[in-house]
Amino acid sequence: ITLGVLTKKGPGFFELFGPIEQGALHEANSVSYTQLSERFEAISKEGVATPQSVRTFLQQVRPSGIVDRAVSLASKVLPISEKPLYLALLVLIVASFNAFAMFWYRFSTKMCAIRVSRDLRQAYFEHIQTLPMSFYQKHSSGSLSSRVVSDAVAIADGVNATLTNYLQTPFTVTTTLALCFYASWKLTLFIFLGLPLIAYPIVLIARHVRRLSRQLQKNQESFSSVLLDYLSGVQTVKIFGIEHFSLKKYREENDRMAHIERKSAKYDVSSRPIVHTLGMTFLCTALIIGLYFFNMSVPEVLVYCGLLYVFYEPVKKFAETNAMIQRGAAAAERMQEVLDVRPEIEDAPDAVELTNFTEKIEFKEVSFRYGESWILREINLTVGKGETVALVGPTGSGKSTLANLLPRLYDVQKGQILIDGKPLQAYTQKSLRALMAFVPQKPFLFMDTVRENITFGNPESDEAVLDAAKRAHALEFIEKLPDGIDTLL
User: Is 157 in contact with 113 (CB distance < 8 Å)?
Assistant: First the structure.
């Protein structure tokens, strides 16, 4: 509209003194002296024409376009018709307000996306802690870690793009379309015919991007698993000299991921140029039709084309960021797959706290299997309080499995395990495990201080921590560490 105001000029001689048909002023091919004197008298009965008298006359006989209405509305705030400097001031005020509103809106949407990502990561971690060991046997560490890291970032980016586009774009599009109708409803109806041509490539590209995003995220799981396997088994790799084997697996996954990324990039960068080309085509069409078929003035056509550009700009931006939205949607589906998994082992509604172990532990006809293969069959075993029992057998005979059944890391498929005559399901899992000491086959340390690794987050005094280290025969080497029990491992 500002461009239309700047290019707007007063009527030419042949328009000012042209014929009035159906209450509107039209440009004449020629003007006689009689027409000149009659029109001059209509403009000013005093015989002196002034800018104000001409404007008053034109308001009565000249069609009022969107530029005239904009000037009239703006003149109520600042006298831009009389002092063009005020127009520059008005543009500066509007631009400043727009900059502030844009910053506030984008900052708000970004903060909202960050909160969504934080809450998702928190909910994800809290949920997987409730899942049984069987769940972790079905999913690799690379799969679970990539979902909480890369997928959460993709979801946050998708949420930010959604809030920015799905909320802002409809408002901008609706407003500019209303102004386009106000400027020329006939031309706007014609432009409407081209909207499906713009929507089709956006929808088509979105489908491809979403499909490729699922493939890419799935490949990232395998890629992360290969990297984590190497890092966790780096000692084995180096001792046996199999770096070439690890490198071969890594290169295969890396190349596979790069191939999918190249295909995805093709769709990412193609949407905006396609929409831009279609938009400019309709812009040029509107320019020609407005000037030569609807007899619109140059300022009116410029304003209309400006509004049309404002309409297409968010559409082009939406087409570009829609790929980000689709990646976020695909990532949300993957994360939801884990969040939808219900814990197989839960406390019974009437479960009680196990406060003390007084009599015995009994395994009665216990059978257990992983998948289709039975590992344990009808095991019967009784261990009284104070007794020591050693399980001896070849690898894979079920020794570790039998030990894992007691703290309910798994539930038996047949039979039952009793503590003091009551089945394990009668007690809460937390109280059951609180009375057990467990030494894993593979040593594991958290990336934290010695103190935190001993207490596992439970607040204890230094005396209690040192006493535990002493009983574990670890105090001697702990005291030699730079910061003692506060040394970071």
Answer: yes
Total number of residues shown for the chain? 489
> Nearest-CA neighbor of 405 among 431, 435, 425, 434?
425
Task: Name the residue range of residue 47's domain.
Answer: 2-63
What residues contact residue 405 under an 8 Å CB cut-off, 6+ apart?
Answer: 366, 368, 411, 412, 417
- Partnered with residue 155 across adjacent β-strands are none
142: in domain: yes
Q: Token digits for 283?
A: 């812009």
Secondary-structure breakdown of the chain: helix, strand, coil percentages, each rounded to the nearest 5: 65, 10, 25
CATH number of the domain where residue 380 is located = 3.40.50.300
Contact (CB, 8 A) for 428 and 352: yes
pLDDT computed for residue 1 by the predictor = 43
Q: Is residue 318, in this structure, part of any structural domain at all?
A: yes
pLDDT tier at 89, thresholds 50, 70, 90? confident
In contact, 146 and 229? CB cutoff 8 Å: no
- Per mean pLDDT, which range of 250-264, 290-304, 411-425 is the poorest? 290-304
Q: Does 276 reside within a domain?
A: yes
- Integer Cα distance of 135 and 419 in angstroms: 26
Tally the C-alpha atoms within 13 A of residue 369's C-alpha that lie toward its C-beta. Answer: 8
Q: What percent of the chain has pLDDT over 70?
A: 83
Q: What is the average pLDDT across 186-193?
A: 75
Using a cut of 0.90, tell me whether the model's pTM lies above it: no
